[in-house]
Amino acid sequence: MPKIKLATKSPRIDMTPMVDLFTLLLTFFILTATFRPQEAAPVDTPFSVSEKPMMDANVMTVVISKDNRIFFNFDNGPDTILKFRPKILAEMGKRYNIEFTPDELRKFEKSGASFGVSIQDMKAYLAAKNSDERIALEKGIPIDSADNQLALWILFARQVNPAVQTMIKGDADTDFPIVKEVLDMLQDKNVNRFNLITNLEAVEVTEVTPE
Amino acid sequence: MAEIIQEEKGKGGKKKPKKGDAHVDMTPMVDLMSLLITFFMLTAAFSKPKVMEIVLPEKIRKDEKVEPPKIAESRTLNIILGPEDKVYWYPGKADPAVTVLQETDFSATGIRQVLLDRNRALFRKIDDFEQQVIRGEIDIKQDSLANAIKQLKKDDDTGPIVLIKAYKTSKYKNFVDIIDEMSIVGIARYTFTDITWIEENLVNAALGIAPVTPAPAK
């Protein structure tokens, strides 16, 4: 009678396929992750029950910070080859007789962050070496009627990219009059459809009240 | 990678490779990887902010000879966003002698109840429709559901026409909140308009501030 031999093999589990799979997944998620550039001003968006996610491309965002400064941002378009950002900046420069070097345009294209500087300060802003220098320049985009640069930015953004959609990202504690000013200005430019950027509200109550 | 030298091979021969040495303990690596995967998956899914769409009516410019649309006074509900998250409302047309502002807030029993009372018929209709879809009585695709609800809202002629106005010290949050309420309650027609001096004075009176002089007519 043969003896019943106990398995001498170690109870180790071969983890190689698991590690392989994990590596693949990890690579996938790292590559698909989009890192948002650091915002110039912290903005706590208000809450809403809207579940519509924000679009990836073709957006221009007016950011209104708590201290009533206005920032603006737009993307490069659905394809990076389109290079909408430098085109819009070049248009804007032409209007103010400021010539931007290819180097500056490239820098602007790459940054992807919202900016809150007047066009006159843009060169210094692009040349800034660290974020402290940049923050010092960010006084907000002028919107007074004498020099309404935000209106021009919006005009050129829509000229260069006709499919652009308007986003308004305001801090919950922003005073309403400044938001109103921005809304009025957008309406003057025939933009009547806005998307307000909000956070999804944790509690949603849609109770049905009895008659 | 760790399994190149197999244990069985060395059984017969004398030159046994040392057992176990070739095994690399991969547990910490797996731990770390699962953590990283979790992190990247969650950030990919939740980093996207949400947007709330609003459409404002086209502005009527001074040089255009277009009359602003007339709306029935009986269906009009005015909402004024006040300071410190207060909400004032009154029905119909503002008359400094008659109109009394009602004060409420953004809680579920505040402005939502006011709106719901006036919009019950439409709210019911939308809710019934959604329930039927959930129960499977109506076979409809998700994207045409939104359109069907839009159509229901379009056809409605009983609900209120809400005019939203903002007092000068209100916050942006209030504006988002009130538009949010509109979508919660399913108001079909609402718009945002400028506050008039009459209304401003009504709010001033409610707050105990001296009334302002009427602005010259534009």
Summarize the structure.
The complex is a heterodimer of chains A (211) and B (218). With 211 residues, chain A is an alpha/beta fold. In chain A, 36% of the residues lie in helices and 14% in strands.
Describe the structure.
The complex is a heterodimer of chains A (211) and B (218). By secondary structure, chain A is α/β, with parallel strands linked by helices. Chain A has one domain. In chain A, 36% of the residues lie in helices and 14% in strands. Chain A has seven helices and six strands. A five-stranded mixed sheet of chain A has the order 1-6-5-3-4, covered by helices on one side. The longest helix of chain A is centred in the first third of the chain and has 17 residues. The radius of gyration of chain A is 25 Å and the shape is elongated. Chain A starts with 15 loop residues before the first helix and ends in an 11-residue tail after the last strand. With 218 residues, chain B is α/β, with parallel strands linked by helices. The longest helix of chain B is centred in the first third of the chain and has 20 residues. The N and C termini of chain B lie far apart (81 Å). Classes of the chains: A alpha/beta (211), B alpha/beta (218). At the A-B interface, helix 1, strand 1, strand 2, helix 7 and strand 6 of A face helix 1, strand 1 and helix 5 of B.
